[in-house]
Amino acid sequence: MLIEIVDAAIAADAIVAGMKAGADGAVCVFDGIVRDNSHGRRTLYLEYEAYREMALEQMRTLAAEAVTRFGVRDVAMVHRLGRLLVGETSVLIVVASAHRAAAFEACRWLIDSLKRTVPIWKRETFADGVVWAAGEPFPTEIALRGNEGAR
Amino acid sequence: MRVLYFGVLRELVGGPEETVELEEGATVGELIGILRGRTSNDSTGKGADEGLWRSLAVAVNREYGLQDVVLREGDEVALLPPVSGGLERVRRC
Question: What number is the ipTM of this complex?
Answer without folding.
Answer: 0.86
